[in-house]
Each structure stands twice: as structure tokens, then as C-alpha cells.
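Full entry
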Amino acid sequence: MNRENARRRMVIRCNTQDRDLASTVAEIERRVGSQVELPEGYFIEYSGQFESQQRATRTIVVLAGVSVIGMFVVLTILFPSVRVVLQILNALPTAFIGGVLALVITNQSLTVASLVGFISLGGIAVRNGILLVTHYFHLMKEEGEEFSRDMIMRGSLERLAPVLMTALTAGIGLIPLVLGGQEPGREILYPVATVILGGLFTSTFCEFLIHPGIFWKFSGKDAARLAKLGDSTEELVH
């Protein structure tokens, strides 16, 4: 029995095996709450690695939210159209779906390491979205293409090789980490690699099979208007 701040303290330590820390602590809390009656003045604190993980998770979630807001502001400055900005940010949910599916398939839980993987995945997905949309702008503004299905088809095909090369290069590098994830020393890299690899698959798939159709129906007219507005502004300057 120890003392802390003039109060008695009893420390009970335990380790987890074959399950994640969060679900273990949740079950402990449930069982203690239903089966243990504490005397007056007594209370239980769950600390250690679990407490650090909760604190890190809250920090990452807050910073991720700030990052998304920052991306929205910067993209709005570059492309003054909410629809065009949402077209680019639409890459986030399509990528995150793959990351979640990868965690489910590999029977992993959401941890701090996997959250870091989601943040990295979000940056890659948004970058690919920017490359695709900016190329549409380039075709309409610099090469005189009209907003049409042929223009979208051309722009998508011309961006297919760079995006595929990026995804394949990253994916090939991550496969050994995923296959050997159960080896000692890879406890942190395994969930990060799993999330990024799964997200790269779905984001690349949706980038060329879904996003061009969304651009045609949802944000393409705004993009064509901005491209023409840019041309008019340049003519006035000259």
C-alpha cells in the first residue's frame, strides 16, 4: 500500500495479450462497475499506457480536424468554388474506407499508430485529387479544351500513369511491412502500413472510376467558369 497526496493508493498492473488495449480496459470498467461496490471515499483511475493512448488520440483527432480546415481554406483560395474544393476533398472518404476495411480484414483495432496512417493516407489522397482537378483546369485554360466528356476522359487518362506509379511505388514498399507485421519490432509500422495500403487501393480505384463522373455532374461547370474567368483576366492584363 502506497500513499500519494496524503491518500492511500493501491496499484494493480496487468498486460494484454491477443486483444487491443481499449477493448480490454472497456471490459474491465464494465465488470468493475457491475460487480465491485467501492466504499465511500474510494475511486478507481485507469492510467498508464491506456491513459497516454487516450491523450494522444484526442490530440491527433484535434490536429487532424485543424488540418482538414486548413486544407479547405487553402484550396478555396486556389479554387474559389466550394464545389471544386469538395471535389478534391472527396478523395478523403474514399481513401479512409479502404483504410478501415484493411483494419477489419487484418483484425486490427483503431490505435494511435493507425490514426497516423490515416493522416498520411489523407495527404496522399488529396494530393492525387489536386493533380487530377488541376489537369482538368490546364486542359480548359491552357489548351482550349471545352468542358465535355471527352475533356474529362483525356484528362483522366493523362493522369492515370502518374497516379498509378505513385500508388504502386508506395504499395510495393508497404507490402513487406504488412506481411511481416506480426514480427517483433513492427508493432507500430504494421497498422500504419495496413491503413495506407488499403486506402491507396480504394482511393486509386475511385480516383478514375468515380471522381471523373462526380466532376462531370457536380463541379465541372464551376471549374469551366473559373477557367474562362482566368482567361478573361489574363486578356485584360495584357
Helices lie at 21-35, 49-78, 82-89, 91-105, 112-141, 149-179, 189-209, 211-237.
